[in-house]
Amino acid sequence: MKNKYKKSAKISEIKIRQIIRLFAIDIEVNKIAKIAGVSRKTANSIVIMLRERIARYCDDHKPVNLKNSRIKCKYCPGCCHCGLLKDKKVLMVFGIIKHDDNVYTQVVKNCTRKQLNKIVNNRLGDTGFKEDGIVSFNSIVDFGQKKIYRLGLTGCNLKTNQLDTVETFWIGAKDRLSRFRGIRRKAFALHLKECEFRFNHRSEDIYKLLLRIVRNNPI
Q1: Please, which contacts does 150-154 make with residues 24 or more away whose CB atoms are closer than 8 Å?
Q2: CA–CA distance from 184 to each of 11, 25, 74, 75 (Å)?
Q3: DSSP conformation letters of 150-205
Q4: 15: closest CA among 24, 26, 3, 25?
Q5: Residue 121, SS3?
Q6: Which of 21, 122, 160, 165 has minimal Cβ neighbours within 10 Å of its Cβ?
Q7: Radius of gyration of the chain measured on its C-alpha atoms
Q8: Torsion, CA 50, CA 43, CA 8, CA 12, rounded to 10
């Protein structure tokens, strides 16, 4: 029988579904490998491919006015969603856009401490984040310092404001990302998109949704 979820069927469909189910309930890779009876390398490889498909799904399901956007920051040359530099002076920074009850995230590339300070200090006026006047970040996060800043509003950071969708997302994302005890720069964007995916589909059955995603794009 053809495996609907994996191109190279060296592992059974039942096993793949089990791994996806464990991933859906947010079990860490070591435990997935042990429970599913596969090597850690195999489990980790499948989890990475799941995150890649989640990231693609998130990009494909952005609201129309956010699709194909390249939100640029005048303080961060080359700022876009495509990744992070290897330079250690570059911070792990991302922006958050709120749309209805969902959030959409984007890594800010090439952002140094000096540039971040300019963005934050300028938040009461022109935030520096615009895309043809269509969208701008509601907040920006310095993940290394675990700080979130509201752009375009008064107040030092989001903690001084009433709970809302953005803060609810950040509280959960901060807790989840911190559990990994250090995320490589290359993997940060995928983990961030997973947080976005889980938050935006918090009222749905993540397992069933993942099965649909993987059926459409086998790992």
Answers
A1: 150/123, 151/119, 151/123, 151/127, 152/123, 152/124, 152/127, 153/123, 153/124, 154/124
A2: 28, 23, 26, 24
A3: ETTSSSSSGGGSPP-HHHHHHHHHHHHHHTTSS--HHHHHHHHHHHHHHHHTTTS-
A4: 3
A5: helix
A6: 160
A7: 18
A8: -110
185 and 84 in contact (C-beta within 8 Å)? yes
Q: What is the rounded distance in angstroms from the CA atom of residue 20 to the CA atom of residue 94?
A: 27
Token digits of residue 152: 């375009």
Q: How confident is the model at residue 127 (pLDDT cuts 50, 70, 90)?
A: very low
d(CA 11, CA 143): 37
Has residue 155 got a pLDDT over 80? no
Q: Which two three-digit tokens encode residue 20? A: 């996806």
* pLDDT per residue as tens digits for the range 1-13: 567 777 666 788 9
Cα–Cα distance between 150 and 162 in angstroms, integer?
12
Retrieve residue 105's tokens.
């995230």
Task: Quote the CA–CA distance of 21 and 44 in Å, as a whole number.
Answer: 14
* This prediction's pTM: 0.80
Work out the number of other CB atoms within 10 angstroms of the CB of residue 207: 14
Rounded to a whole number, what is the largest CA-CA distance in the chain?
60
Q: Where are the beta strands (DSSP E) in the chain?
A: 72-73, 93-99, 102-108, 129-130, 139-142, 147-150
